[in-house]
UniProtKB/TrEMBL annotation:
Protein known as: Proteasome-interacting protein cic1
Keyword Protein biosynthesis belongs to the record: no
Organism phylogeny: Eukaryota, Fungi, Dikarya, Ascomycota, Pezizomycotina
InterPro entries: eL8/uL1-like, Ribosomal_uL1-like, Ribosomal_uL1/biogenesis, Ribosomal_uL1_3-a/b-sand
Start and end residues of each stretch annotated as Disordered: 1-21, 36-68, 191-221, 311-364
Gene Ontology CC annotations of this record: proteasome complex
Keyword annotations of the record: Proteasome
Cross-referenced PANTHER family: RIBOSOMAL PROTEIN L7AE FAMILY MEMBER
Protein species of origin: Exophiala sideris
Superkingdom as given in the UniProt entry: Eukaryota
UniProt feature, compositional bias: Basic and acidic residues: 36-47, 195-212, 345-362
Amino acid sequence: MTTAVISHKRPEGTPYQLDPDKTLKASQGLLQHVQAETKRLQEESSKRNLLAAKTSDSEDEADSNGDKPIWLTLTTKQHIVDQKRLKPSKISVPHSLNKSSDLRICLIVADPQRAVKNVVADPAFPEHLKSRINRIIGFTKLKARYKTFESRRQLLSEHDIFLADERIVTRLPGVLGKVFYKATTKRPIPTVVAHTEKDKKDQRPKSAKKEGAAPPSSPTVLGKEIEKALDAVPVHLRPGVLVAVRVGLASFKPEQLSENISAVVQKLIEKHVVKGWRNVRGIHIKGQSSVAVPIWSADELWTESEDITTLEDAQEEDDGEQGQKRKRNPSTTKGPQAGARKKTKVENGSDKKSAADRELAQVRKSKLAAQKAQIFGEEI
């Protein structure tokens, strides 16, 4: 019997990367659809729906200027469970999603908050950022003042962007709750507030080497870090195989969206996906209520050659398991021919099952080939 291999392994030198032309075509088609759908809904509804007022739930539908977000979704073959890779981060993009000059920024910092307030109030701190930062909250006061659902909801509605000290960003979900993290467009963006100089020898006393004890950066450096956070997109992950990142707005041009997608995909896979491109199953882009448009799909459903199973191996394993079951559960001896008849019936059923499995595998293989041909065809 010949060995029927399900699929072959890709050559080691095969590049894994996005096709710029397909990404641009997908961006152009999605933006046209989102803009046309938005225009149609505006024409149909002449009155404002009071139920669609700006609340914590509707924050997920548009940014602070009412512009619809464009999302990138990445699915992996293996679950992402490493705590280091699950830590919230940010990715710099060529075209910022926070373009408004009157954004209301809230800065959440580690204790003591007075040190950060003094740095922001310093004359050397950029004036265009100082006018937009209207609140600086320490972690201790955040827990004490915003315990109720109503207070957190009010805090959410009073600001457009939340920047969080990277030293405490992993502790915020338990303090802010689902009010903040359900509104995915307002989740805190990690920001470097204090440089601890880990690569250099720390000359501070041991009493000062604890969370929040490191002094904040200088006004100029802190201003650059805040600008960097505003020009980046936040990445928040949960254990699983799906990652969603906001990469653009409906008002973007196709070229702008395509450039943001390329930047996000490269850094996202490099920083958060174990085994890199070989663990990526598919990449799609979508609007808030549109279908997902594929821009990349893997040829294999596994990451290593050891994961490949042949039909012959699977059949031998099934036959071995059935043989063990027959030994453990012998046929009854009711009548001289009962055992022989039952054994023949089991063998015939096994043959029918193997034939059905082979036929089902062939059908699935044909469907998968058709889907790949449609995805990687000239038109999306």
